[in-house]
Automatic annotation (TrEMBL):
Top-level taxon: Eukaryota
InterPro entries attached to this UniProt entry: ADH-like_C (IPR013149), ADH-like_N (IPR013154), ER (IPR020843), GroES-like_sf (IPR011032), NAD(P)-bd_dom_sf (IPR036291), Quinone_OxRdtase_PIG3 (IPR014189)
Keywords noted in UniProt: NADP, Oxidoreductase
MF terms (GO), sorted A to Z: NADPH binding; oxidoreductase activity, acting on NAD(P)H
Residues of the Enoyl reductase (ER) domain: 10-323
Lineage: Eukaryota, Viridiplantae, Streptophyta, Embryophyta, Tracheophyta
Protein name per the record: Enoyl reductase (ER) domain-containing protein
CDD domains linked to this entry: p53_inducible_oxidoreductase
Amino acid sequence: MKAVVITTPGDPQVLQVQEVENPEIGDDEVLIRVEAAAINQADTLQRKGLHPPPKGGSPYPGLECSGIIEAVGKAVVRWKVGDQVCALLSGGGYAEKVAAPAGLVLPVPSGVSLKDAAGIPEVACTVWSSVFMMSQLSAGETFLVHGGSSGIGIFAIQIAKHIGARVFVTAGNEEKLAVCKDLGADVCINYKTEDFVARVKEETGGKGVDVILDNIGGAYFQRNIDSLNVDGRLFIIGFQGGTVAEVNLSGLLARRLTVQAAGLRNRSLENKAVIVSEVEKNVWPAIMAGKVKTVVYKYFPLTDAAEAHLLMESGKHFGKILLIP
């Protein structure tokens, strides 16, 4: 089969399509013929040598895909050859075929094309696990997501609105903020021209928001703490602004704040399967009801993976970028 290989750690040009061995499936796995794979920020880190695949994982990038099941392991009960599915992967999505654990596979939700379903698993599992399962965002609360026009942001806006939260977003230009507003964001903040802490305080009567989903890390740590309400929860899923911060801890104690962080890729298979099951139960009905839409910015052929990474790193896109084998 053809797969995108990271020939050496480096810039996007190191991504090359090569002929490689077909993946072998274990008893609890399925073989998917890939219809599309989505690009995630973590893939660009892996390409630079900063985010290696977990032990035993595929060396090829790609954390989510959609496609048709071509073979099933002998212990697999739910899935059969010919099923149209999407899957959460620990790698290997940038290829014509990929092996996926049966517990991390989801049916393509009705109303979504097989191709576009590739952009759902990683964002749905990241947002549902961090914002809902761990931070317990609930109806009537306020929620701030940084990078509102990213794949994560676009999904988070819609699912948070669906459950009845008031949604705040930050983004870097008016076009991206307009996209967020169209998807239901209540308060849209241009972080280049406005102080998001001041705006959050102004919009919440000085209280702050209840939950923040943050992909910036160090550079925003103090400001995120300053933006939280009593019993507020900060959840960190990325470090685009670095991993080091100096922070005044008094606010954590005074306002009983919680700070958590997690990724998806290095969780145990059992833990990921629980998240996938919760996503199917809680998120899939919202997608099928049209309350949460997939937003795809651009499709690239597998051979243009380098160009797709350049777009991802430029930050000019909104929504998902997909690769088509």
